[in-house]
Write a structure and sequence with these properties.
The structure is a homodimer. Chain A is an alpha/beta fold. Chain A has three domains: about 45 residues, lambda repressor-like DNA-binding domains (434 Repressor (Amino-terminal Domain)); about 120 residues, Rossmann fold (3-Layer(aba) Sandwich), CATH 3.40.50.2300; about 130 residues, Rossmann fold. Chain A is about 45% helix and about 15% strand. In chain A, α11 links the parallel β8 and β9. The mean pLDDT of chain A is about 90. The interface between A and B is large, with 64 and 62 residues. Chain A binds a DNA duplex (16 and 16 nucleotides) through α2 and α4. Chains A, B: This is LacI family transcriptional regulator. Chains A, B: One of its GO terms (molecular function) is transcription cis-regulatory region binding.
DNA sequence: CTGAAAGCGCTTACAG
DNA sequence: CTGAAAGCGCTTACAG
């Protein structure tokens, strides 16, 4: 079963490959008789013709692949959903998503030089050097920033805002002695530190003492130890802002182990609104992220980077939202 | 910044492109002077040469991309981990993973014909028609079966075994009146139905009455309704085998809402051992899947399909394992 | 309005 | 041991 090429379509429809190309690519500026066009289209359909991506890429120097570079830490359900949306949205524009796990040992440079993607989308910050090299090669790079960033080709998901939102909610509920439950995995520090910074700044804004910080792993022991520390001293903690929902669930388990009531003794708020957050005991208050909106923004950014005629999307300001449940 | 080509390397090292190709591809059967080889290697490194994947693909008719086709339902953390492992493992063999979400509107046929992957890996069963077409085009297809399957190019994760394992564990704990908590999402039925079949068969084997089945969504209401139904009648259910951990957590929430104690009144067992399973109240007993082993198997299958000299891996028989915690 | 020809970068028979 | 040449399938100036 040799591949069906444009030459086959040309032969089948009795025209040249040039004409086939013009018809199939809807080249404007060139006028093709309706009859000819139809003949080509029919032949292509009859033969089941699909243009070779490799040949196209070789010719144009640019493939239809969007290289999505993942962070090197465990991706959670959030990034999962994000990629899923991206894949389907970009597919509608004839673009395929190639996922590169940051953990892979192959260098990023080798990969992008090999596949010549039409755009690169980083879900974690790139090394400046990589960004420059790709830009120099003419490949649009859409990056992610964890802080506020005005560049349209940088998608900013300001992590500090998340921490601030958590504190605002806890203060509203009357809490003044706060703690921050950091993740135990160091690779998350880029996120965790910024969320903590947001928590700290918000505490200061509200005139509260600095939050007490402890690392909490996804196990009861580690959470229990943190809870004990938080409850000790003159002013025991009455509310915990957790790095994310999983950490929050660990905190809940730790509080349970210590016989403390939630939210009466200690309130807990997470981040992400994972599907099981509402199933916790008690149901977990959390920060919901508009993943769909983020994915759409990212897809639009890529599309805008690809075509100067497409206006870059404006940063969605309202991506975070408190979901209040019984844990606060 | 035009691309560095093999011609540049040839010029730089004073040899022909043929020689460059021979050196860089470690072509055996051809002997190259050590001096020449070194000169070529140095020039390539100095210039930062990376062969064009497009040109290679066009030439050989086969790319270095492994197309991984996802199911059209929400992928959970399990598949997430799986893809991650695959990406890194295959990267070590110079292969890149291209993820195609089953949900995308573009047809699978168009995608594989366009990118000419060196292999296709289906994480959900393919339509026979698709499989045939790819095989006919000479593309090795590694599939996934949800039942026992002897074909080496089919990875079987016999779902019925999972259900059986759940029942065995519950029976060991002395339960005789069992229920099965099915997921509310219809797209999961390929998995859910087989796990249920395993539960049913095991009940029969143990001489128990047929399990009572109810669909449970990821919310307390739906779980509460299921629990009520299960507890009604002459012989109230005392143990629940859930489709997966998330559903199990919902069941736990339903039992809590009904004021039932776990495991004294009703025991619950899930599947997957998600990170938060051990944080539940009470910690959830579940079936652990050896994802790493599965990923390794899949990667090895792909590699074997690519190279006849590589022996296909033998099916890992021991991929499931009960993790007993306090919920049973 | 349509066709012949060149060239993207690579590898591999085929000659030397 | 090394080089000149062809060809993978496509698109696009350039001619007609």
């Amino acid at each position: 079963m040799p591949r069906v090429t444009s030459a086959d379509v040309a032969r089948e429809s009795g025209v040249s490959r040039t004409t086939v190309s013009y018809v199939l690519n809807a080249k404007d500026g060139v006028v093709i008789t309706d009859a000819t066009r139809q003949r080509v289209l029919d032949a292509a359909a009859r033969l089941g013709y699909t243009p070779s991506a490799a040949a196209r890429t070789l010719r144009s120097g640019r493939s239809d692949l969007v290289l999505v570079v993942l962070p090197d830490w465990t991706v959670g359900p959030v990034i999962d959903t994000l990629i899923d949306h991206l894949t389907t949205t970009l597919a509608d524009h004839g673009l395929s998503v190639l996922v590169h796990s940051g953990r892979g040992k192959g260098s990023l440079a080798d990969l992008w030089r090999a596949v010549t993607p039409c755009a690169v989308l980083g879900l974690a910050p790139f090394a400046d050097e990589d960004t420059y090299a790709m830009r120099r090669a003419g490949i649009p790079v859409v990056g992610t920033a964890l802080d506020e960033d005005p560049h349209p080709e940088i998608f900013s998901v300001p992590q500090t805002n998340i921490g601030a939102l958590q504190v605002d909610h806890l203060v509203e509920r009357g809490h003044r002695a706060l703690a921050y439950a950091a993740p135990a995995d160091d690779r998350l520090s880029a996120f965790a530190d910024r969320r903590l910074a947001g928590v700290q700044a918000a505490c200061q804004d509200h005139g509260l003492p600095a939050p007490r910080v402890a690392a909490v792993g996804l196990d009861v022991e580690s959470a229990t130890a943190a809870v004990r520390a938080w409850r000790s001293g003159d002013e025991p903690v009455t509310a915990v802002a957790a790095y994310n929902d999983e950490v929050a669930l660990a905190v809940l388990a730790g509080l349970r182990a210590e016989g403390l009531r939630v939210p009466d003794d200690v309130a807990v708020i997470g981040v992400d609104d994972i599907p099981t957050a509402k199933l916790a005991a008690p149901p977990l208050t959390t920060i919901w992220q508009a993943i769909d909106a983020q994915a759409s923004y990212l897809a639009a950014s890529v599309l805008a980077a690809l075509d100067p005629a497409v206006r870059p999307p404006s940063q969605t300001s309202d991506v975070f939202h408190v979901v209040a449940r019984e844990s606060t």
